[in-house]
């Protein structure tokens, strides 16, 4: 009884943090409104986005996206990631949920809102870098960094990783969302995804704004002290899942195999705890269970 109550409180608290105060109402609308969806039940996008690995993937995406000076300038100037980090998280998680699980009409409306916001986001960074959020090249960077991160995290800590064909299908499904957002030439396979990430390397660096964001994410997280240890488990696994060159930009230093193995284990432990707590929360998303591959062996 005590354990069940603790589990329920933990799940309620986590869901409230991630989904915001309107989370229960938003979930009801997303999952219970009748109508056609962009993606069928059991599709890879639903499997990936319904898994706790998204906590690792989301952190990894922010770290990787920060390495593009123009993208970082837009985030620093317009997103409010420091003044309202939980609000930004709730908006992002709701968009991902609506496009993966919501009705086609609601998904399109969410895309239209984001495109309207992108049209207003433009300016110049303190270093003189001009940016425009609706720039197709910049949109594609944000997209590929996000998708690459969700795939990498799901491979590493997902409850039921997909096979290679499943991840290719996930990338292709996400490309359809990206095209609606204005991305041109979004990758449709993991091989194309890797090629496009590599093509951006010459533009990437740890700018002062990026370093400030990375420090905020890794060392000044907007979480209570009681959650600092599991948060460190998520960030550690996010770091170790980055490409070696990106990881060197985010946190310079030599790789340490034993430390990396501990980071992977920490990520698996924390995501399992997240699944355990959310399983007791009626308003939490439920991960899909089709097309599984073998559970990854412990590092």
Strand content: under 5%
Low-pLDDT regions: 280-299
What is the helix fraction of residues, given as a range?
55-70%
Spell out the helices and strands N to C: HHHHHHHEEHHHHHHH
Q: What would the principal axes of the Cα set say about the shape?
A: globular
Counted beta strands: 2
Question: Counting H and I runs of at least 4 residues, what is the number of helices?
Answer: 14
Radius of gyration using CA atoms only: 18 Å
- Structurally, how many domains make up the residues? 1
Features:
single chain, two-stranded antiparallel ribbon, disordered C terminus
Overview of this protein structure:
- The chain starts with a helix and ends in a 21-residue tail after the last helix.
- 65% of the residues lie in helices and 2% in strands.
- The longest helix is centred in the middle third of the chain and has 22 residues, at 136-157.
- With 299 residues, it is mainly α.
- It has one domain (2-278).
- Residues 280-299 are annotated as: Disordered.
- Residues 48-271 form the ER-bound oxygenase mpaB/mpaB'/Rubber oxygenase catalytic domain.
- It comes from Cellulomonas rhizosphaerae.
- This is DUF2236 domain-containing protein.
């Amino acid at each position: 009884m005590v354990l069940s109550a603790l589990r329920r409180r933990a799940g309620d608290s986590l869901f409230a943090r991630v989904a915001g105060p309107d989370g229960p109402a938003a979930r009801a609308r997303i999952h219970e409104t009748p109508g056609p969806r962009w993606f069928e039940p059991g599709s890879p996008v639903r499997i990936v986005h319904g898994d706790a690995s998204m906590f690792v993937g989301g952190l990894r995406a922010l770290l990787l996206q920060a390495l593009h000076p123009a993208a970082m300038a837009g985030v620093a100037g317009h997103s409010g990631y420091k003044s309202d980090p939980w609000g930004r998280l709730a908006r992002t998680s709701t968009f991902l949920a609506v496009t993966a699980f919501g009705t086609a009409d609601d998904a399109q409306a969410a895309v239209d809102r984001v495109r309207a916001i992108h049209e207003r986001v433009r300016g110049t960074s303190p270093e003189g870098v001009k940016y425009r959020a609706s720039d197709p090249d910049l949109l594609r960077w944000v997209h590929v960094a996000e998708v690459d991160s969700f795939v990498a995290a799901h491979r590493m800590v997902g409850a039921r990783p997909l096979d290679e064909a499943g991840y290719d299908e996930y990338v292709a499904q996400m490309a359809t969302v990206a095209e609606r957002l204005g991305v041109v030439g979004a990758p449709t396979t993991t091989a194309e995804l890797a090629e496009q990430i590599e093509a951006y390397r010459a533009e990437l660096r740890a700018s002062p704004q990026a370093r400030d964001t990375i420090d905020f994410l890794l060392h000044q997280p907007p979480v209570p002290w009681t959650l600092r240890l599991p948060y460190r488990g998520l960030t550690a696994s996010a770091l170790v899942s980055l490409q070696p060159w990106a990881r060197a930009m985010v946190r310079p230093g030599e790789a340490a195999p034993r430390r990396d193995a501990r980071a992977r284990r920490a990520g698996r432990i924390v995501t399992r705890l997240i699944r355990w707590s959310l399983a007791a929360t009626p308003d939490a998303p439920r991960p899909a269970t089709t097309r599984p591959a073998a559970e990854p062996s412990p590092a």
